[in-house]
Structure formats: C-alpha cells, structure tokens
Amino acid sequence: MPIHDILTTIAALAAVIIMILLIRFGTRFLGVIPRRGLISGAMSVEATFSLDPRRRLSLVKCQGHQLLLLTGGPNDVFLGWLPPATASSMEYRP
Prior knowledge:
This protein is of the alpha+beta class. The relative contact order is 0.08. A hairpin with a 5-residue loop joins strand 1 (43-50) and strand 2. 30% of the residues lie in helices and 29% in strands. It has a four-stranded antiparallel beta sheet with strand order 1-2-3-4, with no helix packed on it. It has two domains: 1-38; 41-84.
C-alpha cells in the first residue's frame, strides 16, 4: 500500500472526526440541544451516596417532593417519600 493511500485514509478519518465535533458543538451553540447544566425539569437528583461498589442510595426531587432510591443491586428499590423539611426539624440540637 503506497504512502499516498495511507495519508489519504488518515486525512479522511480526521475530517470525519472534525465534522462530528463541529456538529456536536454547533448544535449546542445554536440551542438545538440544551446543555446539561441548564436543564430544569420536574425531576432532579439532589444527592447520591455510594454504599458499596455496586449499590447507590439516591435522593431524588420530583415536583417538589423528595424520595429515596436504592439502585445497583439485583433490583432497584423505591424506599419511600421523605417528609417535607420544616425549619424546626433543620435546627441543630446537641
């Protein structure tokens, strides 16, 4: 295989990768695809806690309510809704 064919193949591969990157960043710049940090939906992950290498406990906020999820084991488990936080329950009591 002559060197000209190898250089042509490498240039074509580089051109395709550059076009993919330009399309990806161009659509985000134009607003076609929203940025990850700016998405404001009805559901968001507030906090996560890793219990072991496989399982994770997640605090999810869904339409103003909070719930606990245990994920990563053989089954994902919904642990329940948390009661609404009040100012008196947030105070530190030694």
